[in-house]
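User: Some background: our group keeps a shared notebook of sequences we're curious about, and every so often someone picks one and asks for a predicted structure to add to the entry. Today it's my turn. The entry only has the sequence so far, pasted here. Could you supply the structure so I can complete it?
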Amino acid sequence: MAVRMDLPHEKDPRRQWLGLRAKRMGQEFESLLDESFAYYDERGFACIEKTPEPMKPTKDIGNGKFIACYEKKAQPDYKGTIKGGRSVMFEAKFTSTEKMEQKRVSQGQTDYMNKHQLLGARCYVVIGFATGNVYRFPWEDWCNMKEIFGRKYVTEQDNLQRYKVDRSWNGKLALL
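Assistant: Of course. Here's the predicted structure to add to the notebook entry:
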């Protein structure tokens, strides 16, 4: 059977919808983190801010606008200080699949978190699943995932209860 190569590749509408849905859920997860950290800031418990995405402008198109590309990210998503002076860092990951893989944290992010943990910072990976559940892994546990869970990924079927993040009466995440 011959396959015609001159026809444009049609996109699968179901996959497009699933991708859009996953993107929207990831944005909601990030908004929940932003709101929770803003709540801590407003009450003087911590000042934790989102790390800006590093971009490299490639073309100036005028009126303060430009075309840019993302440079490889090497820092965690959120950094700040909790009351008392200790540094804290959070790498946030969301998945619409059933598992969260350890390799989702890049080598650059791993190096950065290791360096700051050695200096006394509290470092965490916060993961969100499509179920709405959120888990906070201490950096050491994230790095030792294979020893703890027997593999380099976790699912919600694993015993994650000790990592589960509660929500307060106002829906904010109890991350600290």
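Suggested note for the entry: The chain has a mean pLDDT of 87. The chain is about 30% helix and 30% strand.
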